[in-house]
Amino acid sequence: RKAYPAAITIFGAKGDLTRRKLIPALYNLFIENHLPALFEIFCVDFQTVDEAAFKNDLLAGVNEFSRNGKAEPSKWADFAARISYLQGDFTKKETYVSLKSKVEDFEKSGKQRGNRMFYFAVAPRFIEVIAEALYTRKLCSNKVHDRIVVEKPFGTDLDTAKKLNRFLTKRFSEKQIYRIDHYLGKETVQNIMAFRFANFVFEPLWNKNYIDHIQISVAEQVSVGKRGGYYDAAGAMRDMIQNHLMQLLCIVAMECPGAYKAEAIRDAKTKVLKNIRPFTTPQVFKNVVRAQYTAGEVDDVPKIAYRQEEQVSPESTTETFVALKMMIDNPRWEGVPFFLRTGKSMARQSSVIVVQFKDSPHKIFKDDIVPNRLIISIQPELEISLLFESKVPGLQMKLVPVEMDFTYQEAYTESLPEAYEALLLDVLQGDATLFMRADQVEAAWKVVMPILDAWKKSPSKQLHFYESGTWGPAAAGNLLKPYAKEWYRLP
Ligand code: BG6
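== Glucose-6-phosphate 1-dehydrogenase ==
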């Protein structure tokens, strides 16, 4: 692939995402020679800053958050020389006039019109403002080379997501729009596609004939911290289920795409979302559990209750935990429940997908047989294991479940790129495979809308509470019965 020069613009350069994720990712791409020889990073934000101090702060971010640890001074100096700060109000014309002249100067210096990437690391209220300015100032008008990257949340419900899609697609072609869901860039998540579609041994079993149920859990230890202002209006359904967990579900449940190509993969995923059985209001209260954390301890560190968090209403009914059961109405999955669960301030950080196979139909052993399970650990453990029954050595026929394991640590020496490294490189290379298409985002909103609507009508109905540092409310466990004794948890 030809490496075009890249003019990378980050709107929201003083924000947390830039410091924690974007700059460390770009820096790692740079030191591992994935960035084109000619590139420049234009950092735009409202605040007036001293450029040297700004860069030092970015360096501190790299030192703290990069998977490669501390930056090497000479490499950082090379990298930092390509960064410039542009103070500007996102709502003012002058910001874009000076940005345009900077981008054009860079392109002139390389005697080539390369790729332009505009990353929206900004609060949702600025997305349309910036998009409009890029459009009218003709900063992002080349349909092949110019791209925008939009962070979540993409809308706050189906209507706002549709409106935003309409707004963006009027100004840019769909191919220029990269809607990020960083879970799709995670190495272990990308590997699920390889696991499913490059190993024919599992495919014949991957359906209602052999699978009893599937669990998808994303448990977090972190609480909402300083993000109360955003989170209290969003909640776990909008923050995690509508995007990250739905995407995991799509990868697990999709049909094999016709080719490893962006559109084929995105078509296959969208079909899954469209086949999810719509929730009726009574089903919402039966099959969806929502809860909020109270004070407690996570790893021996005391945690305050959600209602005491900064910028959270003391009477808030926002959920910090959701567990739900959903069904997919298609020939592959008819009758197989999918259980999704996510929460903050929980006992452990653990993102795991469990595929539980059916019991063997004919029992010849005395011992209870534990059904086979395939466990795909996404983080922090990176492994795939298959649980099967084995005879305990000895003179009796005694069976116990054992595990066949694949761990990244044992199998590979390569270090794993961060999700943002993979995704930023894809944007530069024009590969949208791991990004959300307009119809995908809308289909995912469509699934969760009946739940959000039912909750809105009765905000405190069936809001459960769980102590920080636990695995969530007991009601979430009841959902699973009679399929499994409990949610799978890392030992
Ligand atoms: C973000 C959510 O999209 O994902 C956060 O807004 C959440 O609330 C985060 O903590 C989880 O991402 P990761 O990569 O740490 O699992």
